[in-house]
């Protein structure tokens, strides 16, 4: 296993070579045309150390659509501002259902199983909107500060396309609003949520931005975002719910808290040690990057760095 301060480049080079030699990349998300255009042959991976040193391989500086990876950051911001009260409106149990599923909501009084399925993320963004008046703007400010990349932004075409194909998310939001678990007007909330999903960021940006989860809640500038206990809570929910109905398989193969997005990115955390982000747009049928999961699997196998 790698001692602290190890140079991660050799292991990243080896992983990239293994991935390049492995056939089968899955298919890009096709629920909006813009994502369907992505080339499944692309692959990038970055590792960020606690002090902000970043190592990368392949397309690690190429911005891609962060999508559901942003759910980790909105959760952190709401937990930082409103604390435990958040858990009254959203649970912490794996759903075993697809990320955009409506089932369970009716039996559970409009309270989603966890903050990483779309229903739960809509609740979190609703709270962030109430707390800040601009959920997606406060998310972007945070990502820029933590990554050190002031050029990070939204892709307006992706957000518009999400809106045009947003019936499922609109249904989820309206259904929860009927239980009083969404407090902002649903069209406003959806606008914020789709902008949030449309963040364009690279593996380097997202690995750096997730650093507070490896630093037990401490931001890049040394200030405290979360208590140690809250950082642990987020890592735990990532481990159990971060890859939807594949979370058990992801934990089995990778053994790290992780969060995927349908843009093909996955972030992962080695608490106390480093953060990772991998990107390859080809997805499996559960919406997780095929080469991304394979690369993280190789990383923990080769380095021995896992939470187990
Ligand atoms: N924008 C997507 C949606 O809400 C995000 C889903 C995802 O990345 N899993 O459907």
TrEMBL record:
Gene Ontology biological-process entries: glutamate biosynthetic process; L-glutamine catabolic process
Domain of life: Bacteria
Transmembrane segments annotated in the record for this chain: none
Keyword annotations from UniProtKB, A to Z: Acetylation, Hydrolase
EC code(s) of this entry: 3.5.1.2
A Pfam family the protein falls into: Glutaminase
Signal sequence interval, chain numbering: none
Entries under SUPFAM superfamilies matching the protein: beta-lactamase/transpeptidase-like
Entry's Gene Ontology molecular function annotations: glutaminase activity
Catalysed reactions, as listed in the record: L-glutamine + H2O = L-glutamate + NH4(+)
Residues that bind substrate: 68, 118, 162, 169, 193, 244, 262
PANTHER family: GLUTAMINASE
Subunit structure: Homotetramer.
Sequence similarity: Belongs to the glutaminase family.
Protein name (database record): Glutaminase
């Amino acid at each position: 296993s790698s001692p602290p301060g190890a140079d991660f480049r050799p292991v990243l080079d080896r992983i990239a070579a293994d991935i390049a030699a492995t056939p089968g990349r899955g298919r890009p998300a096709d629920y909006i045309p813009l994502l369907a255009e992505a080339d499944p042959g692309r692959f990038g991976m970055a590792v960020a150390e606690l002090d902000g040193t970043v190592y990368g391989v392949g397309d690690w500086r190429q911005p891609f659509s962060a999508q559901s990876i942003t759910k980790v950051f909105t959760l952190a911001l709401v937990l930082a501002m409103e604390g435990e009260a958040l858990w009254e409106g959203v649970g912490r149990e794996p759903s075993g259902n697809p990320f955009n599923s409506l089932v369970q909501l009716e039996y559970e009084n409009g309270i989603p199983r966890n903050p990483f399925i779309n229903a739960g993320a809509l609740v979190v963004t609703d709270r962030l909107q109430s707390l800040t008046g601009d959920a997606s703007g406060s998310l972007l400010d945070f990502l820029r500060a933590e990554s050190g990349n002031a050029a990070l932004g939204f892709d307006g075409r992706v957000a518009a396309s999400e809106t045009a194909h947003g019936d499922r998310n609109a249904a989820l939001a309206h259904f929860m609003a009927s239980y009083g678990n969404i407090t902002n007007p649903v069209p406003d909330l959806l606008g914020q949520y789709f902008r949030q999903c449309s963040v364009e960021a690279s593996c380097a940006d997202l690995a750096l931005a997730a650093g507070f989860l490896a630093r037990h809640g401490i931001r890049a500038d040394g200030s405290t975002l979360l208590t140690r206990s809250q950082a642990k809570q987020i890592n735990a929910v990532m481990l159990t719910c971060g890859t939807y109905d594949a979370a058990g398989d992801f934990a089995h193969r990778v053994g790290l808290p992780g969060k995927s997005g349908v843009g093909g990115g996955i972030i992962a955390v080695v608490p106390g040690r480093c953060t990772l982000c991998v990107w390859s747009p080809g997805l499996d049928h559960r919406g997780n990057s095929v080469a991304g999961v394979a690369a993280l699997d190789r990383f923990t196998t080769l380095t021995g760095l896992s939470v187990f």
